[in-house]
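Suppose a classmate hands you a notebook page containing two proteins, each written out with its sequence and a corresponding row of structure tokens. How would you begin to make sense of it? This section walks through that situation. The first entry is reproduced here exactly as it would appear on such a page.
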Amino acid sequence: MGATFSIALYGSDRASMNQAIDAAFEEVHHLDALLSNYLPASDWSRVNREAAKRPVEVSPELFAILSDCIEYSRASEGTFDLTVGPLMRAWGFAGGAHHVPTPDQIRDALQLVGYQHLQLNARERTVRFDRAGVEIDPGGVGKGYAVDGMVTILRARGFRNALVAASGSSIFGLGNPPDEPRGWPISVADPWDHRKNAAQVFLKDLSLSTSGSYEKSFRSGVHRYSHIMDPRRGVPAERAVQVTVLTPRTIDSEVWAKPYFILGHDWTAAHKPKSWGVLYCENTPGAACSWVE
């Protein structure tokens, strides 16, 4: 999935700990074979190759993931969208040189973008695209789903204190480390000065995911464009510079970080569940980040 996964685990029996860690990483390899668009033999890659030609039958697990992604897209007013790949390529964020596309290039890419192009048949458990050129990208959901799967395995084996992370951007704190009853301490960097922290949080049976415009960006003239794309308009989002989301499931924190980034502080305040935490950093140099109430 183009990510590095890690586990920090506390326990009293090294052998059982190693077995649990091995089982958790086996789950990652299983999901990589299912979800990776880097592997030609994965089920996800097979869907991208064949679904514009015919309905493609998929496993119950993959069908459930795709069904959930459609619901995420609807709930986020289309700002979470698995089909954003053509836009990412148009801007040079999927390989090739970064550049600002012409209005015609954006319009052409938008013809292939939109979760409505995915046709799911629950009875046959198939996926079909309604036109050639549509493709799906697991980048906004795969890591979070995998972290949750790893945590489920650790819990099933009786472990209650672990920190599981995917590339440092999607993290789950299971229980707490022995010397910190509040949970696993995680520092959220200040987006304007990474030598400073915008906040410190404690993850106790809680996940954290962060999206920032500084992760991948390029400058054209006086303007800087980020990789966080608004799939509805075909241009990078600019309201925020960084958004951090805390939720009970990592798939939720990973998925919702970008819609909250795109839709802005006020939309986030009106729509996020009350129990979730969102640290919103506006795209104003030097502005302080604030928790969304």
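The notebook's second entry, a different protein, reads as follows.
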Amino acid sequence: MSKTNQKKEQALGDALRSTMTILVMIVALVISFGVFNYVMGNPINFEGGNPDGRALQGNYLGIIYKGGFIVPLLMTINLVLFIFAIERYISLSAAKGRGRLNVFVRNIQMDLSADKIEDAIARCDKQRGSLANVLKAGLVRYRALQNVQGMDKEQKILALQKEFEEATALELPMLSRNMVILSTIASISVLTGLLGTVMGMIRAFAALASSGAPDALGLSTGISEALINTAFGIAGSLFAIVLYNYFTTRIDNFTYKIDEAGFSLIQSFAASTK
């Protein structure tokens, strides 16, 4: 397949994935509001069967429901985080390929030292994954350049470097895809929780400021809303930060292995070419 066709397929895939991302968010929002209204807001969770009243003692569904309409938004954020964390784990596991990367890179280096290019290509086909795809493209070009006439050594090295860089550019976006969603959730989750907290405190102080005896129900509802939204927002942000750093570390490891393998490939080619 030519580079042009690969880029066209990648652009089409990116468009489809963007559409799927929007659909996932919409579905997560619908599910969250459904759970909030029909499960947490079920009358059996409240005294007298009234969702506007006090939640039953120890009934956490009813207690969370009292957090107000910000709660389903936070549930949506956390659900989206969960979905894309699974997607990133599956994608990065597929990008790793089969077997350990350290062993794979070392075996490729040994094949290059022995000029066993075909064996190295077969090893890439067996390993699969992003690193193997990049290396295979470089190895195929490596063998082709060895038989090219009319190019000096420097031109061949530059051609090999360009091939390796183009193959890397096609693979790297797949590794970092949807990472921006995790980093965004790390920020907006806690901010959304703080918004709910502020709104809950406004309700609590409004209850205190009411004429005559303070509205105990309004005061407790406002405080519950503030604390529940704070808890949801901090939890979502905490998990997003941990997951983002975990996946970033894995991506950095892939990038390092690609750079290491590319350096070995080019050095081997330079040493074997006159």
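A careful reader of the second entry would note: The first helix runs from residue 3 to 40.
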